[in-house]
Amino acid sequence: MDGDARYAIGELARRTGLTVKTIRFYADRGIVPPAGRSPAGHRRYGADAVARLELVRTLRDLGLDLPTIGRVVHREIPLAEVAAAHADALSVQIRLLRLRRAVLVAIARREPDAEEMELIHRLATLSREERGRLVGEFLDAVFGGLDADPAFAGLRRSMTPELPDDPDGDQVEAWIELAGLAQDADFRARMREVAEQYAADRAHDVTGGVRRDAVAVVRAEAGPALAAGVDPSSPPADAVVAAITARYARLCGRPDGRPLRRRLLARLEAASDPRRELYLRLLSVVNGWRATDSLAPVLDWSIRALRARVV
């Protein structure tokens, strides 16, 4: 018997916690071969067999297949190289599991029919290139023909969702909802209306090219009034509305008056579409941006104030 062959298979099983059957299985595949045999012909294992079996068990727990483990224990490939490759593979699996979880959460929340469920799954599993085409079609519908203006080019970039390669569940779920919204023909038409209104105002911008729009104007003037609890239809709101319309008149190069106020009201009504704010909120989640404050209260206050004075 080989002098280094000190452990019978039963002793090796006791020391490692593995079954005799498992050790024999590894031995038959050459992963932990016996170092020799007893005079009676029974297998005997060397001192290194314990450490090798511990390594095999660890690698199996980590999901490595037996052929790869065999190459590792026989030093045919470096363990570090195998570990790195397996970690990469697990990263892919984790991303897929997150994606599946997000799809299931979205389905559970919406209770869709079979057709809607298929749409949710399709949107969630689009490739980067497919997502780019979907977003591009939406932004072309909104800004096409307008984005030669640097202001619109900037707006387009700021409205572009970019789902990261390793999104979390919230980002995936937000992307599913945002992508569905971007395919809504009525929403596209409303966003195009807002863009064209902005373009018309910019055509007569006399403020030196500073990128402002009707929403920015009312946010600056109506925000403090809203915070102070001023009723939009009350006399104290008159001065606020006058300040809003005076600033807007300078922005679009038109005289203040009833036509201008109707024009501003139309812009604010278009911008107050709740789907627009939903898109921006979802965009922040997908892109990992800090969520901005809702403009709905300021827009609502301003719309009510203008309606009380032009209708």
List keywords for this structure.
311 residues; Multidrug-efflux Transporter Regulator, Chain: A, Domain 2
What does this structure look like?
This protein is an all-alpha fold and 311 residues long. The chain has 2 domains: 71 residues, Multidrug-efflux Transporter Regulator, Chain: A, Domain 2 (Orthogonal Bundle); 185 residues, no CATH class. Helix content is 68%, strand content 2%. The chain contains 15 helices and 3 strands. It is rod-shaped, with a radius of gyration of 33 Å. The model has no long low-confidence stretch (mean pLDDT 86).
Q: How would you concisely characterize the structure shown here?
A:
The chain is an all-alpha fold and 311 residues long. The chain has helices spanning 9-16, 20-28, 48-61, 66-73, 79-110, 114-124, 128-143, 150-158, 169-182, 185-202, 214-227, 237-252, 258-271, 274-287, 296-310; strands at residues 7-8, 36-37, 43-45.
